[in-house]
Specification:
With about 70 residues, the protein is an alpha+beta fold. The chain has one domain. About 20% of the residues lie in helices and about 45% in strands. The chain is built from 1 helix and 4 strands. The chain has a two-stranded antiparallel ribbon with strand order 1-2. Strands 3-4 form a two-stranded antiparallel ribbon. A hairpin with a 5-residue loop joins strand 3 and strand 4. It is flat.
Length: about 70
């Protein structure tokens, strides 16, 4: 049986929620002079049940759904 570690709370889990998240980061281009570039990329994270439900609650509150 394969064990995973929650990317949020770092606890060991056996059946993670496999979700795709958008990561925001600053990249650098080196064409003529180094210039910062704001960019995003999709990353895959493993979350435990508690962290996944907390993230879903935050998304519902932001959308205006009180449930």
């Amino acid at each position: 049986m394969k064990a995973y570690i929650c990317d949020s709370c770092k606890t060991p889990i056996t059946d993670p929620y496999d979700t795709k998240m958008k990561e925001f980061y600053v990249g650098v281009t080196f064409d003529t002079i180094p210039a910062p570039v704001n960019t995003t990329r999709k990353i895959r994270v493993h979350l435990c049940n508690t962290c996944y439900n907390s993230l879903a609650d935050i998304a519902k509150k932001k959308a205006g759904d009180p449930k």
